[in-house]
Amino acid sequence: MTTGNPSNLNIAVVSDIHLGHARNPAARIIKNLRAAFPDNAETAMLDIIVLAGDVFDTLLELPDDEVTEIKVWVTYMLRLCKKHDIRLYVLEGTPSHDWKQSRIFESLNEVTGIGADLKYVRSLSIEYEERHDQWLLFVPDEWTNSTETTLSQVHDLLRAKGLTHVDYAFMHGQFEYQLPPHVKAQKHSSEEYLKIVKHLIFIGHVHIHSRYERIIAQGSFDRLTHGEEGPKGHVRAFRRGAEHDVVFVENTNAMRFVTVKCEAMTLEDTLAEIAKGVDGLPEESFVRVRGSWDNPIFSNMDSLIRKWPWFTWDKQPVDDEEVETPEAALDDEVSYIPITITRDNVTSLLTDRLINAGATSDVLAMAQAIMPEVL
User: Fold this and answer.
1) pLDDT tens across 9-63, in order?
2) Where are the domains of the chain?
3) Best CATH choice for the domain 8-250 from the list 1.10.10.1100, 3.40.50.1820, 3.40.50.300, 3.60.21.10
4) Residue 33, CB-side half-sphere exposure with 13 Å CA sphere
5) pLDDT, tens digit, for every residue of 132-159?
6) In 13-172, which residue ranges form alpha helices assigned H by DSSP?
């Protein structure tokens, strides 16, 4: 039974928050998150909020200073969603970032008695959104050791539920069009997923906001490193009938990472260019100087630190003839993204390896019987 209007649906998707990042403090990111989702009428219009992976950047421990701040923010989000009857989905992201720490949403929702309409999604799944009569596909990062295997399991789920397609998909990973051909990483097929998703596909992991047909990559919520100088924020999709209005909501207070380009300049011109480049930058910004290898500025970086101690300085020496290529602004593991072996996926990974090695059905059955005893 549906209680909402399936033709009208307001969705907000934010991903790659990376709380616990070494360069961008959780307190700062959380301040921006609160500004993005205030307790007001605009937020109350939302039907669904999806945190689409990499809420965390690294494995945190209880004594870490940021843990308390994160718990307070999680509680705020749960109370916000409860107050305005918003369904909150939290998708597991890259294992080496999230480490299943997003289960904190479940535990705080229970122990505080908030009782928000929450679903923490840590496995490949298709969820039925009853209030709006919509089927939602969730694909965590690195679910199997290949995107082909993951896609096969998606089709298995569709058949098991008697479906030919879902209405929306929320993913963490990357499609082939988001990466240069030489990058060694798992790449989902945009063509295949567009076939099985009726409306929109939202995907996190690549930190650059982009749109390709009905696929929306929201990008990272805040800036975390150089090469991410474009707008940061999250996306909102407003469905009215068959049409969707997709809006990018910019995080205007995102951390600033600026590259000052000083190739083939004298020291005097370099200093003038740097002064112009940092003019008006907020404190705590990160500034990188890109210049020729023999530029004297690289042996005098201390002078920049003394003059502008409130910035964090870095250098990028290059050959004069070197052509600058756009930085992908991907996750940290862009050139090589390993599969993180966990208790949840080790059986599946070993089974896939046996299948690829040509194991017979008898050998597979024997292996699967033994695995629980030895793992």
Assistant:
1) 999 999 999 999 999 999 999 999 999 999 999 999 999 999 999 999 999 988 8
2) 8-250, 257-318, 341-375
3) 3.60.21.10
4) 27
5) 999 999 999 999 989 999 999 999 999 9
6) 26-36, 41-44, 65-83, 95-98, 103-111, 147-160
